[in-house]
Input
Amino acid sequence: MKVEFVEKNFTEVKSDVLILALTTEDAEPASKKDPTPKFVSLFRDSAGELKRALSGSNFTGDKGQQVTLYPEGRHRVAHLIGLGQRSQVTVEKLRRAAAAGIKAPRAGNVSSVLLSVLGPTVEQISDYDTVHSILEGAILAAYKFDKYLTQNRKKASLSKFTVALKGVKGDIGRKAARDAASVCESVYLTRDLCNAPANDMYPEVLAGIALKIAKKYRLHARIFDEREIRRLKMGGLLAVNSGSKRPPRFITLEYRGKPTSKDWYAIVGKGITFDSGGISLKPAANMGEMKMDMSGAAAVLGTIQNLASLKIPVNVVGIAPSAENLPGGSAYKPGDVLTTMSGITIEVDNTDAEGRIILSDALHYAQRYRPKAIIDLATLTGACVVALGQHATGMFGTGEDVMAQLKEAGEKTFERVWQMPIYEEYEKQIKSDIADVKNVGGRWAGAITAALFLKRFVGDYPWVHLDIAGTAMLEEETDYAPKGGSGVGVRLLTQFFKQISS
Output
């Protein structure tokens, strides 16, 4: 897919489809005598035709308004998307406008899309963010997961995205276009990993993807097989995987973007490639969605790839414990007591609370880097989905500065996070009579007790837990995320590392 920026008016660039975002000010009448919107005159040869087409559309540029036109000249189709008042335009409105244009009907075989806004930008948004946001919304909305379709598969023809803005410096626009293409490529990777069926995506395959990323970007990867996992005494990871015939993997991927610094950050992702619930078997309904229970690990790999592609000056290690949680003769059972890598023992009350168990080993391992902070991402609890739905990620932790930066990054990328409490009063719910901790805490405050369980394994390092159960696995598509794997976390963490590195 080709992505580019050109310092030109949209009228100077030829494309199959034009997506033009307009404010209410752009759509104001040309004069008191002429009710034709101001922007129509920009289409030159097609002005008369567009004037007639718009006469019955009542297009005023209000937020969410859309109209499709078929002008003569450089564009076969023109989708006009309303942004609302210029002073109220945000980067998210630009993303959504571009996404709406991508989803609008196309005429025949379309290979190139031109995106633009008039103005060329608005005061409250930088030129870089304008270009970046438009491309982000368009490319992310164009994502399709059709690898397994053999019939009625639409051949992907959309191969070129161009942003045309007169007045934006070429070097700024081109950098924004490159950066947007990079982050979207990494989100695509993350979505593909999440949407892949479990018979094609299991721990060994996930580890292989990490090795490919390492080879492409010259990163240091270490993949621990079952023998090495056993040598490290990762009792949590071994137990969860014990019901599967496929071996577990423990993945580390190091990005050293600031080699002069000894400071490291650790991002840890839950990599359960399929979760049946184990002996505590889940209901059959919707169990197929549990192929996406490795969304945290996928986001870690996607983030490391994007940091390396953008060359962000920060040192980050990505850690992903990966297993299948299946029932079987050798599967771990309710009532078992596990000894983790840290030496902390866990009483298993429910084998379907397996994500926190494999993360216990990974979080302890992360301490080897003496990190400035540990951030974990996990599709951990249904309770978090009940609390926040699919529009915000639950955030828990001890690193107040890190959480503040993540909140800021979430507002910028619209992968929003919401801080939840981890009061010590909740800890009694995961107190065990026979071990150091119990892996579930009863019916109430399930997302909080899960976070407090993880807290036991991070030592004294600043730590943030992101429960992405609601935001990573979507039951219906949003403006620029598909039903299924959303790829959440990549854009959020990239923005976070951009902020702290600057």
